[in-house]
Amino acid sequence: MKKRLNAIEKSFLPILLLFHITGLQSVQNNGFQCQARFNRFIWESPRYLFRLLQCVGIVTEAFSIVFLPEKKVPTAVFILALLQVIANLQACRSRKQIRVILMKLWKCTQMLQCDHNGRKLKASILSYCFVMMVMFISYVLFYKFSNEFKMYQNFIENSNHSFPKSNQYLMFIPHIREIASPTTTALGMISLTAYYGFVCFYIKFLFNGMEEKIRNLNKDSSYDVLLIQSYLELTSIMKSLDDYLCFSAFVIVISAMFGLFFVNFDVIFLSSDYIRNFIGEIWFFVSLCMVILSASAANSAFITAKEAVQLLPWKIPQYHKQLKVMIRSECMTDLSLTLWKTYKIERSLIFGAMGTLVTYGLLLATLNGL
Fold this sequence. Notes:
14 helices, about 80% helix
């Protein structure tokens, strides 16, 4: 069982490694079973470094609010950075469930006897993480040559504070901010969006496999309790995913919307850093779509699977009474993935988000007299 269980965990290994860096400790330290303090420190050092970068990022964003003449954007970025720190801390509290969900997914795969293409899944996860990391690195490199970075640097150079000797230290703030905040934001968002998205897609894959098996049943089929058991197991996985990561999904969507808003506003009205903003727009849009499209796909698959389960008594009439009693008692609960338990995730949310961004963009442009 342990060997088979590792099949799906190996597919999610790139995400689990990112989780280990961000402090979720989802990878077992098999290579560091020795109790030597140095070995343990080496294994835990990525988590310590990530926490340090988080603190430094929050501090530099607070300095940006104090020193920059324009307060709106730094304040919004500071609030989003705090939300992402809170989302990461909450995800850390649910780190045990991250592995439990993967175990349950593999259990359902065995029960339904679905063809688990681990290589294809792992290749998709690797491709997503790699592309997102490349875009993040490109965004950071282009930021150093952006107008915003130059404005920040020039303002500190020309500032006349009460403590002029501190200006030489303040000069490092733009450079530290360039690394700390984007790195923690990118690692946190990439790992959470990848895990949430691919788990949702895998749930959809299993629901579709179960629905297909039910549709192919005929009157001569035998009573297979595993179909109902797998349905109940998948619904429990969806419930756990929504219970433990709904706030993280909410923070990712809000952060992506804010990012899209400021990137597009910067392109249209303020700066000429088109390449950097174009990379940032793709990055935020992919993060937004990864959560919304995957969760809405899982919600739709759950509805169709529930309808298929309700047809079981008529598919196998010789077990009509037993199946009807079991379905009525255990399979009638409605379930959906949500944003912070307040909003059901549907595909139409993307169009609503785009409309909101356009509306507030035009409103802000009008108020600023642009």
